[in-house]
């Protein structure tokens, strides 16, 4: 099984999850960066643009997903919605006949059901099959640590038969 782990991170939380998924599945990591990061555009703009479902322009990167069986797609919640960079990733990729695993980080403790539903609909419309979803609450002042992620991720990946090491 060939795994791709594609993600966007602004403050490092989603990256911590992405790296651990990559370690545990042997998946190739692909970090997406924006042409204009929210620091430049402003956080109010970031929140607003997420609410209205905008996409941002991503730095040119090879988002060719051919040859992968499983795509892990990760991002964060902004203003109760999928972040604009996450919208861009979904928009740019081809999910046809892929198993797609969503992973999200957010500050709230409750399940981001609306975000999961909307991402699922968009990915399914592009031919992807949503295999499972993982989400984790991040903290305000410190980035998620490997020690706190490894156990829940091992469980999640093992349940889905995609755990390769660990
Ligand atoms: C502009 C902005 C809006 C946010 N809005 C929400 C929100 O509505 N709900 C929530 O749970 N977290 C919200 N957060 C927190 C992020 O989802 C959380 O910190 C996430 O782990 C960030 O991921 P990252 O470190 O990979 O960038 C927001 C963060 C930013 C920067």
Question: How do the helices and strands line up, and which of them pair or pack?
Answer:
Layout: E1 3-7, H1 13-25, E2 28-31, H2 38-41, H3 43-51, E3 70-78, E4 81-82, H4 84-92, E5 99-106, H5 113-125, E6 129-137, H6 146-159
Parallel strand pairs: 1-2, 1-3, 3-5, 5-6
Antiparallel strand pairs: 3-4
Bound molecules: flavin mononucleotide.
Number of H/I helices: 6
Helix content: 25-40%
Bin the strand percentage. 15-25%
Query: What is the string of SSEs from the N terminus onward?
Result: EHEHHEEHEHEH
Bound molecules: flavin mononucleotide
How would you describe the shape?
A: globular
What structural class should be given to the helix and strand makeup?
alpha/beta
CATH architecture: 3-Layer(aba) Sandwich
Residue-averaged pLDDT: 93
Question: What are the key terms here?
Answer:
single chain; 166 residues; alpha/beta; Rossmann fold; 6-stranded mixed sheet; 6 strands; 37% helix; binds flavin mononucleotide; electron transfer activity; FMN binding; Flavodoxin_CS
Structure characterization notes:
It comes from Sedimentibacter saalensis. InterPro entries: Flavodoxin/NO_synth (IPR008254), Flavodoxin_CS (IPR001226), Flavoprotein-like_sf (IPR029039). This is Flavodoxin. The structure is a single chain. The chain is α/β, with parallel strands linked by helices and 166 residues long. It has one domain: Rossmann fold (3-Layer(aba) Sandwich), CATH 3.40.50.360. Helix content is 37%, strand content 22%. It is built from 6 helices and 6 strands. Strands 1, 2, 3, 4, 5 and 6 form a 6-stranded mixed β-sheet that branches. Helix 5 links the parallel strand 5 and strand 6. It is globular. The site of flavin mononucleotide has 20 residues, from helix 1, helix 3, strand 3 and strand 5.
């Amino acid at each position: 099984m060939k795994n791709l782990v594609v993600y966007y991170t602004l403050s490092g939380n989603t990256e911590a999850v992405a790296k651990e998924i990559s370690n545990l599945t042997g998946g190739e990591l692909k970090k997406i960066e924006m042409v204009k990061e929210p620091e430049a555009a402003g956080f109010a703009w970031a929140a607003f643009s997420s609410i209205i479902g905008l996409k941002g322009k991503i730095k040119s990167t090879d988002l060719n997903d051919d040859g992968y069986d499983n795509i892990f797609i990760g991002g964060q919640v902004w203003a109760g919605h999928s972040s604009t960079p996450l919208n861009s990733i979904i928009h740019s990729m081809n999910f046809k006949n892929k198993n797609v695993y969503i992973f999200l980080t957010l500050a709230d403790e409750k399940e981001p059901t609306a975000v999961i539903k909307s991402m699922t609909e968009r990915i399914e419309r592009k031919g992807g099959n949503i295999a499972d979803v993982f989400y984790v609450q991040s903290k305000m002042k410190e980035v998620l640590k490997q020690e706190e992620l490894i156990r829940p991720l091992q469980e999640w990946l093992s349940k889905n038969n995609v755990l390769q090491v660990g």
